[in-house]
Amino acid sequence: MNIAKVCVFASLITSSMLTHVYAEEAATLPTIKVMADAELRDEVLTTVQPFQEDIKVRKTLQHYIIKKEQGIQNYEIGNQAHVLNVAPQTAMPDMSHLSPLQQEYVLVVAAGLQSSDPSSGIFKMLEPLGIDREKALNHVQSGGGAIQINLDQQRLTQLLGDKWQSRFK
Fold first, then answer.
1. What would the pLDDT profile of 98-107 be if each residue is shown by its tens digit?
2. What 3-state class would DSSP assign to 75?
3. Cα 162 to Cα 129: distance, rounded to the nearest angstrom
4. Is residue 136 part of a domain?
């Protein structure tokens, strides 16, 4: 039993000796001190030394600069950030002269153009001409050429009135 106690005690002492880390003396960075005139005169007259570069001080300064740069790069914006809207507000267009169906069509096309897939707005514009996304994709995959446009006269008359027929005659 005594041997076990001695072994445990010896291992504790050995492990405690190994955990101690001995470092060189830490370098102190130069600082600015506030002094009275008399202290400043005494300091200047007695402690003027020629400049000698100290490697420890240089490494400490480099470490300090790196630490500050990382602090600047990793800065987190908290709740104090405010969203600034720099785009001027545009006036809502006056669509009172359009029919309700035309107003709906314009709004759907605009929403399609502003969406993450703007082609949906373009295909909404081409819908009265009989062109939809599937028809366009099939046309491209089949080798292209001229695309056939089918005018949906009833749909165009609903959207544009009788004006569109005079333009195509």
1. 888 888 878 8
2. coil
3. 16
4. yes
